[in-house]
Specification:
The protein contains 14 helices and 15 strands. The chain has 393 residues and is of the alpha/beta class. It has a six-stranded mixed β-sheet, with helices on both faces. A five-stranded parallel β-sheet has the order 2-1-11-12-13. A two-stranded antiparallel ribbon has the order 7-8.
């Protein structure tokens, strides 16, 4: 029996690599001779760098940059095994994980550090980039990143504006005379599961601003500032970011990439599936296990379990999903090739206890799922215990 194990991380608990190992342990407790292939994956957010670097035998390069509040943070980029492709998680430099709840402020947070990561990778010779832009703390329209790469954003007096979304409507001139020329020589693949436009009720600020610290009043102000910025960009480039799908990703960073970079945007999980060669592994598979910390109706919008299940469905392979918690609206997920969904929480417990016990809970649940599957699987014309007890699969 060939089993592909392709989970995402269980955020705040275990990495995708650790989750895959725990699931494998549970499966082999019952089917010790099963052939397992571990393909840790991600959907364009946290863990994307680790997944792509591990899959290609690459390495990580640590870089000190400005964090979302302007103070130094230790970030990193990944270099894939080919030595040519750079993987950047913007959250490493500009992520919400770097800002405490009492300091979240989308009027002030900046993507400057993300630009610094790109600049350092360019200095190191990289010309092919994969940008995972989930998990941002920012709502600055990408201006910080642009500033770090040489774009001069000037006010009506010819002075450079500061950092953060609060500065967007002060920009009168976009001066690209010092823009890094190496960007035009490079390729940028943007991995994101966000299709929101830049502005409006479904845009970056209204949808994602509150989780980054924006009050209802701040949301209204920031959306107007973002609209102003989109107008300025359109005058400069001819590109209308306002209602462009994906422009609202990472607080408008997605729009900045589409307006100023030679960039393509794809669903994050599709990028990861391609670069980890998951489809090649699926060709010989009988079963697939995947999972993530929380699964609900939002999972259908490009999250890991659905992306993996869709890939497996094309080969007629059933997919089992393990999750830390199960929310509402999962019924629609079965349309995407998911066979069944299982919570790993097996008794009343606190969130902290579940987080700390995740490896054990994943292993236990994986074992129970494979036991159930094997008990009902015909083997040489027989269903059930006597043959399955041998477990020589």
């Amino acid at each position: 029996m060939n089993i592909v194990i392709a989970p995402d991380s269980f955020k705040g608990s275990v990495s995708a690599v650790e989750a895959a190992a725990a699931i494998e342990k549970g499966i082999k407790n019952y089917v010790p001779h099963a052939k397992t292939v571990l393909v840790p994956v991600a959907d364009g957010g946290e863990g994307t760098l680790d997944s792509l670097v591990a899959a290609t035998g690459g390495k990580k390069v640590h870089v000190k940059v400005k964090g979302p509040l302007g103070t130094p943070v230790q970030a990193m980029y990944g270099l894939q095994g080919d030595g040519k492709t750079c993987v950047i998680e913007m959250a490493s430099a500009s992520g919400i994980c770097l800002v405490s709840d009492d300091r979240k402020d989308p009027m002030a947070t900046t993507t400057y550090g993300t630009g610094e990561l790109i600049r350092r990778a360019l200095d190191d010779g990289c010309r092919n980039f994969i940008l995972a832009i989930g998990g941002s703390a920012t709502n600055d329209g990408g201006i910080g990143m642009l500033q770090a790469l040489g774009m001069r954003l000037l006010d009506s007096s010819g002075e450079s504006v500061g950092f953060g979304g609060g500065e967007l409507d002060r920009i009168a001139i976009i001066d690209d005379s010092e823009w890094d020329h190496r960007i035009a020589e490079s390729t940028f693949l943007i991995a994101s599961d966000v299709k929101n436009p830049l502005i409006g009720p479904n845009g970056a600020t209204f949808v994602f601003g509150p989780q980054k610290g924006a009050t209802p009043e701040t949301v209204e102000i920031l959306d107007k500032k973002m609209h102003y910025w989109a107008d300025i960009v359109q005058k400069k480039t001819g590109i209308r970011m306002h209602d462009m799908p994906g422009a609202g990703a990472a607080g408008g960073l997605g729009g900045a990439f589409q307006a100023f970079f030679p960039a393509d945007m794809k669903r994050g999980i599709d990028v990861v599936i391609e670069y980890t060669r998951l489809r090649d592994h699926l060709r010989e598979a009988d079963l697939v296990f995947t999972g993530e910390g929380q699964i609900d109706f939002q999972t259908a919008s490009g999250k890991t379990p659905v992306g993996v299940a869709q890939a497996a469905q094309k080969f007629g392979i059933p997919t089992f999903v393990l999750a830390g918690s199960i929310g509402r609206g999962i019924e629609e997920l079965y349309e995407y090739g998911i066979h069944s969904i299982h919570s790993i929480v097996n008794a009343p417990m606190s969130l902290q206890a579940a987080i700390e016990s995740a490896p054990e809970l994943l292993a236990q649940t994986a074992e129970q799922v494979i036991r159930t599957y094997m008990a009902n699987r015909p083997v040489n014309g027989t269903v059930g215990n006597e043959v399955n007890k041998q477990r020589n699969w």
